[in-house]
Design brief:
Helices cover about 40% and strands about 15% of the residues. By secondary structure, the protein is α/β, with parallel strands linked by helices. The chain has two domains: about 200 residues, Rossmann fold; about 110 residues, Alpha-Beta Complex (UDP-galactose 4-epimerase, domain 1), CATH 3.90.25.10. The radius of gyration is 19 Å and the shape is globular.
């Protein structure tokens, strides 16, 4: 019998790629999204139930109608700077919204959830590469809102038997290699799309935030993971829960760090075009390096990233953004 997964935030970047992977693996996909930051045209692999996480009645209707066997929970606000300016919005949407979702799951008897968490729950890392047993001390409301959810999930397992896999992403990047879906944010804050914007837009210049970090070239080091590798991890996490796996948290990264300037040079190498740039001051709270150890995900889930070499990530992203340019031209013609 075909199993059904309810995907909250399935109209967003990572959520839509996971919907594609779920559907291709034989799952029936239902997207629950308010479309405030997602895109209707990204809902291509299942029915859309338009609703808000804070709307308990809408959630109850979606669970009653579709009777999902599991939930993949991506719906969240995810801008660090915005979370500092508007913390209440983040705690309400990300944390309280998840409480409402879990209440609906408990009421409907749905007892498995994959949670889209983040390396931001760790804060400034105490060692490198980062392992799941490190202390979690977020330095912004976004990271704290996600850490609160991790704690709430533990409590709902005790109270309602809901088992969870918490997937702590590092830097999601790239697009589906077939170009069906990709990264679209408004505003865009991620490095690779901004580098590509510099290649495609004569009026745009990338700002590199700090070149005086204690790293090999002075710029921040981050761990870039292809979005389709993330999707594969979600599939393996679903299988793990259906095989009776206990609640666990896993880092999802490559174990390899890449500096900001190395990404810039890779974009120039892949596209054959320069990335106009200037050096700005450091951003408050930016750690010099964030690199994952994904050994636990490999040993327990059997997951390894296979599409995350930097040039492949950038090539898929560039091809997607070229399509976006054509889409925008067609929209105004």
């Amino acid at each position: 019998m075909t199993r059904t997964v309810l995907v909250t935030g399935g109209a967003g970047y990572v959520g839509s790629h996971c919907c594609k992977a779920f559907a291709e693996a034989g799952w029936k996909v239902v997207v629950y999204d308010n479309l405030s930051r997602g895109w209707r045209e990204f809902v291509r692999w299942g029915e859309l139930e338009q609703g808000d996480l804070l709307d308990s009645e809408a959630l109850d209707r979606a669970f009653a109608k579709h009777k999902p066997d599991a939930v993949a929970h991506f719906a969240a606000l995810a801008y660090v700077g915005e979370s500092v300016e508007k913390p209440g919005m983040y705690y309400e949407n990300n944390t309280l919204g998840t409480v409402r979702l879990l209440d609906a799951m408990a009421k409907a008897g749905c007892d498995k959830i994959i949670f889209s968490s983040t390396c931001a729950t760790y804060g400034v890392p105490e060692k490198m590469p980062m392992t799941e047993d490190m202390s979690q001390n977020p330095i912004n409301p976004y990271g704290m809102s996600k850490l609160f959810v991790e704690k709430v999930l533990d409590d709902y397992e005790v109270a309602h038997g809901i088992r969870s896999v918490k997937l702590r992403y590092f830097n999601a990047a790239g697009a589906s290699p077939d170009g069906e879906v990709g990264e679209r944010h408004e505003p865009e804050t991620h490095l690779i799309p901004l580098c590509i914007e510099g290649v495609l837009n004569d009026t745009f210049k990338l700002t590199v935030f700090g070149d005086d970090f204690d790293t090999r070239d002075g710029t921040c080091v981050r761990d870039y993971i292809h979005v389709m590798d993330l999707a594969d991890a979600h599939l393996k996490a679903l299988d793990y829960l259906f095989d009776g796996g206990t609640s666990e948290a896993f880092n999802l990264g490559t174990g390899t760090g890449t500096t900001v300037m190395e990404i810039v040079h890779a974009v120039e190498r892949v596209t054959g075009k320069p990335v106009p740039r200037s050096i700005g001051p450091r951003r408050a709270g930016d750690p010099p390096a964030l690199v994952a150890s994904a050994d636990k995900a490999e040993s327990i889930l059997g997951w390894k990233p296979v599409q995350s070499d930097v040039d492949s990530v950038i090539e898929t992203a560039y091809n997607w953004h070229l399509k976006e340019v054509e889409r925008k031209k067609a929209a105004v013609s």
